Structure formats: C-alpha cells, structure tokens
C-alpha cells in the first residue's frame, strides 16, 4: 500500500514536471524564435517596453497556458467519459458538444460576421451548452433512476449529427463562413489572446474541480450499478453530475481552441498502465498528461514545417492516430 | 442488538412481468437464513429489493421498522451489505483495491482513509484467506479466489446484515465449506444477520438456521431446515422426487434424489 502510494505520487510529479518544462520550452518557438535567456527574463523581470517581453506575455504565455488547460481538460474528460460509459473507446466528443460548438461558430460568422478566433469563443460556448443540455435531457438525466450511459451516447451522437448537419447547411449558404470555419475546425491554440483566456479561466476554475469531484464520485461505479448502490452511492445523481462535468470541460475547451481529437481518447490509455485502475488517480494523471501532450503537439506544429505553423489539432491527429494503433496492437485488453 | 430486516407485501415486476407478488418475510436477527428455489423464481430479485438496490413496485422493506427506500442511502449501506450474483470489476484492479471499496459508505469526501479502515480491510482479507495475495490483479485469479475477494469486499463494509447472492457457486467443496463456516463464525461471534441464496439444499440444511423456499413469485414455505426439507416440499419446489434422511454426522435432513 505505502509503496504503491509513493510510486504513484512520483509518477504524478514526473507528469507535472514534464508538462511545465514543455510549456516553458514552447515559449521559445514561434514566428520569431526567442533565446532562452530572453524568455526567462520576460518571466522573472518583465519589462513592458521590450517587444520581445510583450510577445512572451501577450501571445506565447496565454497560448501555452491555453494548451495546458485545454489539453488537461480533454484528458480528464476522456478518463471520466470512458469510466461513465464503461467503454474504453469512448471519447468525450461522443456527447455531441463539438457539433453544438461548430453550429455556434458558423452562426456567429454568418449572422454577426465574426472572423477572429476570439470572437468565436462565446458563440461556441453557447452552442456547446445548448447541445449538452439537449443530450442530458434526451439521455434520461431527469428520469428517477438517472441517465443510462448507452442512451447518453446515442443522444450525443444524434444531437451532434443534427448540429453538424445544420452547420453544413449554413456553410453551403455562405461561402465566407467556410473560410473562417475551415480554420476553426482544425483546432489549435494559435489565435488565443490573453483576454479570451482571462474570460474563460473562471469557468475552467469551476469545471476542473467538478471533474475531479466526478472522478471521486464515479470511482465506486466501476464495480457495477448494483454494487455501487449497495455501497450507498446515488448512482443517478453521480451520472448526471459527471455528465455535466464532462460536457463543461469539453465545451469550454472546444470554445477556446476548436475541436481537438484524440487527447480524450488516447491519454487515459497512456495513463492507466502507470497508475492502475483507480479512477481518481487516472483522472488526475490524464489531466497532467493531456496538458503535456497538447503543449507537445503545439510545439511540434511550429517545428515540422519551418516558417509555417500547423494547428495543434492537426498535429495531435498525426500523433494520436499512430499511438492509437500502437495501443490497440500492444496493450492487453481493458474492460471498464 | 442487531438490525431487523423484514418486508411487507413486496411486489416487483419488470415491465409487465410480475416477479414477486405480495412477499412477506422476516429475517430472524442474529441468524442465518437460506433462500432456495428454482432458477428464475426471483431469489436475486428479492435480495436486490431487500438490499435497497432495486425499488419494489409495491410494498416495502423495513429495517428496524423504517422503510429502507425512504432512508439515506449511506446510512442503509452501513447496516446492510449485499453481494450481487454476477459482480463485475474492471481490469487492472487489485484484490486490495476491491476490498477497500467496501469502506465507501464509511468514508466522506473529506475523510477518505483512516486506520480503522485499514484494520477492517486487513481483517476481511484475513477472514477469506487472501492476505498474502492482496496485491494480485483480479483478472489473474481463479473463479473461486475472485468470489472470496468479493466476499472480503462486503465483509469490509462491516455491517450487521449480510445479503449474499450465491456465495458458493464457483467454489470447490472445500472452499464452499470454508465460506459457509466463515459465515457461521461471523454470525456466532458478531451476531450478524445473514441471508444467502444457495442452490445446494444439503449445504443449506447443514449451515443455516432457517430456509425460505420461493416458487411462483412467492414464498412457498419457510422455517427451520427440518420443517422445510421434506419430501413433499422438495416435490413442490423443484418437482423432484427424493428421499430425506438424517445425515449421519449431525442428524440434519439430507436429500437423496430418486
Ligand atoms: N433486470 C431485469 N429485467 C427484466 N427481467 C428480469 C430482470 N432481472 C430478472 N428478470 C426476470 O425475473 C425473473 C427472476 O429473476 P431472478 O434473477 O430474480 O431469478 P433467480 O431466482 O435469482 O434465478 P437464478 O437461480 O437463475 O439466479 C426471471 O424470470 C428473469 O428473467
Ligand atoms: Mg439469481
């Protein structure tokens, strides 16, 4: 017991360090590469009149933080989602929030003429929230025994498909929307400004602890509904609460950075062999690993093609696809 | 003073199919009761209702006179432990992790782990003889070892009432005996009230104080083994012809099929 606990703490500490180091390294890269010493100076002795310091503070730091928080939120949501649905291949995207966010985005482009990434954040959030509410209602969240995970996923698939269909309908009507949407839908942390981040931080500050609480609440459910009920768990409430936490985490991330695939799906699988079956540890580990992976994807996107940036969403798909194949090939079977 | 579990006019249907109709029963406090009956007669359903896992369609289950479906879930879980018939666990879980889960109703978000929890978990592991394997993965265990790990989990819940659905099904003869002896010890030492579904009538006769036989959605007969295990009753419950003899060691009723 003792030995296990301390080795788990060490693993979590390594994951944290990795994320922070990568985030620091990410501050060097960009259209104008900055020397380490300048980056360091900008952090410890900030000088507002120095343009290089301003670049670090206004652009690169918010971007690194957005990647850390967004990647972490997706990782944690993935761990919760796989446990909630008892399906190791479940991705939080299955709950339909990405479709809702996409619809919010194209409506705001079409009707309000939004073009900048940061103008899209709140419309996306509204769309994601609407989709999440519909999914919860259709998934049976208000029934006395609570939602049934299979029903939730079906509702998510239906709502997501409906919202994407509406999105495409608008895109067909308006060519200009397509140009902005095409960029948004790749997903990435490039366009994030300090003010977007500041506006979203309080919402993350609520939903990340909710995600952690959901991990604690969901943990006994891995033994099955009957056993959990016999242990005094209010299964229906736990499912509703966890679903709300998952859609909040994903909705916020997709609003901030667009849809980023694979983190929610792959990260929990990377974490479980290191931390075991305890959802509480896996959720924390998935947050840390998701954060590190998102920053890594963001860095690689700036390195692969010199002079150009590839969106983190696209890089993530490049990393995620092969790692999923490796996981399927080499890991022993997981049942949740 | 042990908890007293009864039910009154309990009815349960899944959709339109009735499974239990107007069941009345009383688990004698501090004694062991066996629930027997043919496959599909509603034994598991009854146990699920008694443990608050399933809400009855009509009627109620009373714990010390109070309806359990109206009580706080956690409070009930500190008094009644239930082991389902087909329990599942995810991969990557160790015996220790499973048994720790039994402490759930005694923990709160702010107080996750105490030395009391530690002591009770170690005792439960010891009682089922799994102390030295506590760190093994559940998927690496045999069916019988797995069953014992689950029993340790409900023991760790440290309740006055124990409801076990087929605790001996996957066990070899020796381990069936071990589990039933363990249940007997717990009942004798700590005054636990136990109800368990058993399929082996002879084991039920040997290791329990009362037997409740179910048939056609209701209790067919109940009482001490000598009253329940008779040739006509076995004919009524299972439709089987048999002779009942007194077993040579304890003089308890023992059935021999014709
Ligand atoms: N969740 C359910 N939904 C619908 N029908 C059910 C459900 N659970 C049980 N049943 C039905 O209720 C009846 C009683 O089932 P139950 O599991 O209580 O029987 P049992 O006496 O425990 O049988 P066994 O000895 O095989 O374990 C069966 O006919 C079964 O088909
Ligand atoms: Mg049964």
Automatic annotation (TrEMBL), chain A:
Gene3D superfamilies, A to Z: ABC transporter involved in vitamin B12 uptake, BtuC
GO annotation (BP), single: siderophore-iron import into cell
Keywords: Cell membrane, Membrane, Transmembrane, Transmembrane helix, Transport
InterPro entries assigned: ABC_BtuC-like (IPR037294), ABC_transptr_permease_BtuC (IPR000522)
CDD domains, per the entry: TM_ABC_iron-siderophores_like (cd06550)
Name of one Pfam family that matches: FecCD
UniProt superkingdom: Bacteria
GO cellular component, one term: plasma membrane
Residue spans crossing the bilayer: 12-31, 93-114, 120-140, 152-173, 199-223, 244-267, 279-300, 312-330
Chief localization: membrane
One annotated GO molecular function: transmembrane transporter activity
Membrane topology, from the record: Multi-pass membrane protein
Location in the cell: Cell membrane
UniProt record similarity statement: Belongs to the binding-protein-dependent transport system permease family. FecCD subfamily.
Name used for this protein in its record: Iron ABC transporter permease
Automatic annotation (TrEMBL), chain B:
Superkingdom of the organism of origin: Bacteria
Gene Ontology CC terms, in alphabetical order: plasma membrane
Principal location listed in the UniProt entry: membrane
Signal peptide range: none
GO molecular function: ATP binding; ATP hydrolysis activity
A GO BP entry: iron ion transport
Swiss-Prot/TrEMBL keywords: ATP-binding, Cell membrane, Ion transport, Iron, Iron transport, Membrane, Nucleotide-binding, Transport
Membrane topology: Peripheral membrane protein
InterPro entries the record matches: AAA+_ATPase, ABC_transporter-like_ATP-bd, ABC_transporter-like_CS, P-loop_NTPase, Siderophore_ABC-ATPase
PANTHER family named in the record: IRON(3+)-HYDROXAMATE IMPORT ATP-BINDING PROTEIN FHUC
Protein family: Belongs to the ABC transporter superfamily.
Protein name stated in the entry: ABC transporter ATP-binding protein
Organism: Aliiroseovarius halocynthiae
Lineage of the organism: Bacteria, Pseudomonadati, Pseudomonadota, Alphaproteobacteria, Rhodobacterales
